[in-house]
Every structure is written in structure tokens, then in C-alpha cells.
Design a protein that fits this description.
- The structure is a single chain.
- This protein has 17 helices and ten strands.
- By secondary structure, it is of the alpha/beta class.
- The strands form three sheets. A six-stranded parallel sheet has the order 1-8-7-6-5-4. Strands 2-3 form a two-stranded parallel sheet.
- Helix 12 links the parallel strand 7 and strand 8.
- The radius of gyration is 21 Å and the shape is globular.
- Bound molecules: ligand FWK.
- The site of the ligand CC[C@H]1O[C@@H](n2cnc3c(N)ncnc32)[C@H](O)[C@@H]1O has 10 residues, from loops.
Length: 484
């Protein structure tokens, strides 16, 4: 079937579904889609992820959500209950393990057996597909808060079928955001199509009375991604989801570090997502936002880690995002203990509470940065539509081929890798080299000017060494890299 940004017909969807459910034994238990929807409808409304986000948006409340996932059902349940009660998490995740993300379910079978034998998690997340709908329903039924699947799966079709049949009402990911940062050589045509399936599935539940939230993965590689590039990808995935009928979309952004630029990025993302959805005729979509606390290298020192978590929480509060994804003081080491995870959540919530009644005032600097991000994003998105001859899906594939969309430090061979980012003197992420991104001369000059200002102050040339210094800076306790 030719790649096209067009809603899958029922016949097309059900044909693909037949094949998807046969890719692992646990697909057999969810063959009856109507029965799956009836079950999902029985989940109490207060446990619906999409509705909880909508309520938070209306109440201007910032919700907290951790990442968390371990191999066995009972341990995972204990973990989520602890994060919900002790950690005061407003929304619950299930972070899925790396084997499942690559559809290597046979490795999960081994990992589950080893976890039982050794009495500790031998997988770096919860193997949703292997535990199947019975295991995932047990998780959902035992919790009193909404659950979301968080992963990094290029082909998440079976995973998505199982989680929604289990009453999980949110799914993270997208055809770009779960491909380019997560795999080496998976064609975009493939993952855009596979995520059209996931979006259509979410929409079918929605059309039968079960609101489902979809969340493109905002941060991408989480390494110096300029806000206009990550915003462009988020808006594109929101449009692709809306075309399939998705009504609840959370667009996301990963903290870059300069507070004004980060708040501006969230504001620009919110405004332009609404703008583009409206422009392309999607009128009844509920758009919320998510801010990911620092995604780069974390300090090992616990006090410094809490400083990074608190600092990110201030930005989340001032940007008035709908939810913030929380880091832990174990970030520099690996999978956190439940205590460390809960501590990151409590640290975050304390900052949010202290700032709940304050708001960031629109300043000249902030509105200037919002404008810059919106203009850069507009240049990118208009070019994507143009090279796709008006079809967004085909435009994405062509735009990556030409380097109009380009994600820095991505493992995928399907990104041009010509975009070079670096921080300006204030720590804002700028384009050191725009590669083939069709920015106006004014935007190129602005980025250059900001980097030259840093070069002058640091008495160094504008070059790649800035980028290298910036990559290691935060784990060395500063934001802007300094020359040796
Ligand atoms: C997107 C990458 C983020 O996901 C986090 N992460 C990955 N797997 C798990 C996990 N199983 N439990 C908690 N956090 C996790 C990781 O620490 C990093 O902050």
C-alpha cells in the first residue's frame, strides 16, 4: 500500500490486524476487538489518561509522571503502587523493555525466566507483549491511576493492541520519534505506516467511547536538539495522528537548559500545534503538553542530581505544561530503585507546589524567543509539505532524504546528520550549521550572531568544539561548555 497521509479504512485496518495478532502467541487472546473495547469501556472514567490530562489542562495544573518498568507482574505492580502512593505520581507509566521494543519476544521469555530464577529484574522494562492482556489487565485493575505505555518501538502494533485491550488509555511514540532516535536502519515509510495503524487503533477506541491519548516522543535524541526541530517533529506526528482520528494528543519537548528558550519552546509548541491542526481541518482535538526533565548526561552526585531535577521542575512550572516526566537521582547509573524514583517525584512535586500560584510573565526576551522558534518551525514545516506535494507522510520521507528534517546525534542512517547544534553564551541551543534546513537568511544570521557572541566572550572560534564541549557540560556541572 502506497504511503499516504490518509485515514486507514476499516477493511485495510482489519486486514493488517489479522497479520499483527499472529506475530506472537499472546495476540490470540485479543482477537475480538469489540470485546476488547467493551472491556476498556468498563474502566472507571477517573482512570482515563486522556480525561485526566484534559482536566489538568483546564485547571492549569502540572501533573507528574515517572518512568518505571521491571520484568515481573507482581514486582511491577508493587513498583507502580509505591510510585503512586509514596511518590505521589499523578500519572503512571509502564516503561517497556528493550527486547520488546525490537519485537524480540523470545528474548523476553528468557528474561522473564531468569528474573524468576534470580529474583530480580533481568529486563530493563516490563515485557508487555509476553505478559499479554491478562498480565496488563492485572496491572491496570490493581491501580487507581491512569496507566500509559512508554517505550521506543518502531513496530508497536501488537504492543498497542494489547495495552488498549487492557484498558491502558495512553500510548507514547510515533513513526519518526520512535524510529530515528531508536534504530539504525528502519525505513521511515515502514514506521510511519505502522504508527498510522497504532493511531487508527486509538481512534477506533475513541469512536466507541473510550478516549485514548497519544503522545509523540518529544525529546528525540535528547542531545542538543534545537527546539524548532523537535517541535516540527511533534507537530507532524500530531497531524498524522489526527488524520487517523485521534482526539487527545500530548505534544512534548525535552529540556535544553536555557529557561527562557525552554519556556518559549513549550509556548511555541502549544500555539503551533493548535494552529496546524486547525489549518488542516482537525477542530475537536484536545492538545496538552509534556516537558521532559533534562535528558542529557546527569551528574552522579546525588545533591547535584536533585538540583538538576529541581531546576527542570521550575521550568515546567513556569511554562505551565500539562505534565512533566520526572528524572531520578539514579539517572547517571541506570534503572533507579523505587525509592530513588519516588524521591525524584517528590522533589519535583514540591517545586511545582511552591510555584503553582505563580506564572511566568511575558517578557520581551520570552516573546522574541517564541517568535524565533515559530519562524524556524514554519520554515521547516512548509518545506515538508512542499516536498511531499501536499502529502505530509510522503513529505516526511522526502524531507529526511533532503535533510530538511534532520535530528542531531541520531543512530539512524535515515537522517542527513548535517545539522550541527551548539549553545550560545546564555546556553540556548542554536544552529551552528543548518545543513539543508531551508531557513531564511535572517534566521541563519540570527543563529550565527548568537554563536559569534559566545565565541567572542569565550575567546574561541565558532566551531564543532563548541558542540563537543556542550555535550559533556551538564554532567560536569555546567550548562555551556567552556574551552579547555
Ligand atoms: C528515555 C530515557 C529515560 O528512560 C529512563 N528509563 C528507561 N528504562 C527505565 C526503567 N525501566 N525504569 C525507570 N526509568 C527508565 C532512563 O533512565 C532515561 O531517563
Amino acid at each position: 500500500m502506497k504511503l499516504e497521509n490518509r485515514r486507514l479504512s476499516n477493511e485495510e485496518f482489519m486486514t493488517i490486524r489479522e497479520e499483527v495478532l499472529n506475530t506472537w502467541e499472546t495476540g490470540a487472546a485479543i482477537k475480538d476487538l469489540q470485546a476488547n473495547i467493551e472491556y476498556a469501556k468498563s474502566v472507571p472514567r477517573e482512570k482515563n489518561f486522556a480525561l485526566k490530562l484534559q482536566e489538568a489542562k483546564n485547571n492549569k495544573q502540572v501533573l507528574t509522571q515517572p518512568r518505571a518498568g521491571v520484568a515481573l507482574i507482581s514486582e511491577h505492580l508493587n513498583l507502580l503502587k509505591y510510585l503512586s502512593e509514596e511518590g505521589e505520581a499523578d500519572l503512571l507509566p509502564t516503561t517497556v523493555d528493550s527486547y520488546t521494543r525490537q519485537n524480540r519476544y523470545e528474548n523476553c521469555t528468557i528474561g522473564i525466566k531468569e528474573s524468576v530464577r534470580l529474583n530480580r529484574s533481568m529486563l530493563n522494562g516490563f515485557p508487555v507483549v509476553n505478559h499479554g492482556v491478562s498480565g496488563c489487565r492485572k496491572i491496570q485493575e490493581s491501580l487507581d491511576k491512569p496507566v500509559q505505555a512508554r517505550h521506543g518501538t518502531p513496530d508497536a502494533r501488537l504492543l498497542s493492541e494489547i495495552i488498549h485491550a487492557s484498558g491502558w488509555t495512553s500510548n507514547e511514540g510515533g513513526g519518526i520519534s520512535y524510529n530515528i532516535p531508536y534504530s539504525k536502519d528502519v525505513p521511515l515509510e515502514r514506521t510511519i505506516k505502522d504508527w498510522q495503524y497504532c493511531d487508527r487503533l486509538a481512534a477506533i477506541y475513541e469512536e466507541h467511547g473510550v478516549p485514548i491519548n497519544r503522545e509523540p516522543f518529544g525529546p528525540l535524541t535528547g542531545t542538543l536538539v534545537p527546539p524548532s526541530m523537535s517541535n516540527s517533529v511533534a507537530i507532524i506526528e500530531a497531524l498524522l495522528a489526527a488524520e487517523q482520528g485521534v482526539k487527545h494528543i500530548t505534544v512534548g519537548y525535552g529540556q535544553c537548559g536555557n529557561q527562557i528558550q525552554d519556556i518559549a519552546a513549550i509556548k511555541a509548541l502549544e500555539q503551533q500545534t493548535d494552529e496546524y491542526l486547525l489549518r488542516y481541518g482537525y477542530r475537536d482535538t484536545v492538545v496538552t503538553t509534556v516537558f521532559h526533565q533534562w535528558m542529557g548526561g546527569f551528574p552522579k552526585d546525588e545533591s547535584k542530581a536533585y538540583a538538576a531535577i529541581s531546576n527542570a521542575s521550575v521550568t515546567a512550572a513556569m511554562a505551565k505544561v500539562t505534565k512533566v516526566i520526572v528524572k531520578t537521582p539514579h539517572e547517571a547509573f541506570g534503572i533507579p530503585t523505587k525509592q530513588a524514583n519516588a524521591n525524584g517525584l517528590k522533589c519535583t512535586k514540591m517545586v511545582l507546589n511552591l510555584l503553582a500560584d505563580q506564572k511566568s510573565y511575558m517578557s520581551k526576551k520570552l516573546s522574541e524567543q517564541i517568535q524565533i522558534i515559530k519562524e524556524e518551525t514554519k520554515c521547516i514545516l512548509e518545506a515538508v509539505f512542499e516536498v511531499g506535494d501536499g502529502d505530509l507522510a510522503r513529505g516526511v520521507v522526502e524531507a529526511f532524504k533532503r535533510g530538511i528534517l534532520d535530528i542531531p546525534f541520531a543512530p539512524s542512517i535515515h537522517t542527513a546528520n548535517k545539522l550541527l547544534p551548539a549553545r550560545d553564551h546564555y546556553g540556548a541551543v542554536r544552529y551552528l550549521d543548518c545543513g539543508n534546513i531551508p531557513f531564511t537568511d535572517e534566521l541563519k544570521a540570527y543563529n550565527r550572531r548568537m554563536l559569534e557572541k559566545r565565541a567572542k566572550i569565550q575567546n574561541r572560534p565558532v566551531d564543532f568544539q563548541m558542540t563537543v564541549d556542550d555535550i559533556f557540560a551538564v554532567s560536569e556541572g555546567k550548562l555551556v561548555g567552556k574551552p579547555e
